[in-house]
Amino acid sequence: MVTFLPRMIASGNPGHVVTVSSLGGFMGSAFAAPYSAAKAAVINLMEGYRQGLEKYGIGVSVVCPANIKSNIAEATKIRPASFGTSGYNANEDTIASLHSIHRHGMEPVELAERTREGIETNQLYIIPYPETKEGLEKHFAAILDSVPGIESDPEGSALRVRAIQELAADRAKVFNAGEE
Q1: DSSP letter (8 states) at residue 13
Q2: Is residue 92 part of a domain?
Q3: Are 116 and 180 in the same domain?
Q4: Torsion angle (degrees, nearest 10) of CA 138, 140, 146, 147
Q5: Is the separation of the CB atoms in 58 and 17 below 8 Å?
Q6: Known catalytic residue: 129?
Q7: CB count, 10 Å around CB of 47?
Q8: Long-range contacts: 2-6, Cβ < 8 Å, 24+?
Q9: Is the pTM here over 0.85, yes or no?
């Protein structure tokens, strides 16, 4: 992003940025908390880039795959020693578990096709796994259900909304001034 994005903007041509996160970025996991946290950061970063790059005609997509038929289970075996240990607890059981889930994963060519379609339709989120929709709906419904209704604090809500609007306007002025 640091290298190519300024060049994309300077070209004045439309473009598209795609990065890969994971379905794991939408919810925490007791088995992969650091992984999920990192993937959530990627999703959030791309949401921000999407907002900022639209005015340049640059689309942004984040691919959120689940299991893919790949050789990822063998990654710890082929990791160059010069990189040191990853900290991942790789043993025969964890490797067998990874083989098990990825053996039934999406074909990489199909994931690539879904990614291409997502770019062409300018989708922010590219999630090509229909079987995950119900779980995502439940997850986000639980989040929304935790938010109290506006009637619980109408005055405070109005003040906070106005403060956020003023902050956004102030930041837009600073950002736009930097472009001149």
Answers
A1: -
A2: yes
A3: no
A4: -140
A5: yes
A6: no
A7: 14
A8: 5/53, 5/58
A9: no
Check 35, 56, 125, 129 and give the catalytic one: 35
Amino acid (one-letter) located at 176:
N
In the block, tokens 């989120």 appear at 125
23-60 pLDDT tens trace:
999 998 888 899 899 999 999 999 999 999 999 999 99
* DSSP per residue, 66-116: --BSSSGGGHHHHS-GGG---S----HHHHHHHHHHHHTSB-HHHHHHHHH
- Residue 142 in domain: no
pLDDT at 178: 62
Claim to verify: residue 44 and residue 119 sit in the same structural domain: yes
Task: Provide the residue range defining the domain that includes 157.
Answer: 148-180
pLDDT digits (tens, 9 = 90+) for 159-180: 999 999 999 899 888 877 766 5
60, 49 contact by CB (below 8 A): yes
